[in-house]
Amino acid sequence: MPQPKKKTSQSRKGMRRSHDHLKVPSLAKCSNCGEPVAPHRVCMNCGFYKGKEVLPVEHEE
Questions:
Q1: What phi and psi, each to the nearest 5 degrees, are found at residue 52?
Q2: Can you tell me the distance from the alpha carbon of 29 to that of 37, in angstroms, rounded to the nearest whole number?
Q3: Which residue, of 2, 38, 43, 50, has the greatest Cβ tally within 10 A?
C-alpha cells in the first residue's frame, strides 16, 4: 500500500478539517406562545404546530 512521501502540515490538515465543526441548530418562534422551537416540529411548551393544537399539554401548577 502506498505511503505518503511528506508529512501533512498542520495548516493543510486544518484546511481539510475546516468544515468538520459543529453547527448551531436553527430555531424558529412558536406561532402560538413565542417559545423557540426547531423548525417543522411541534412546540413542546404549548402543543401547537402551524396554528393548530396537535398535542394536548397538561400545565403544572
A1: -120, 145
A2: 6
A3: 43
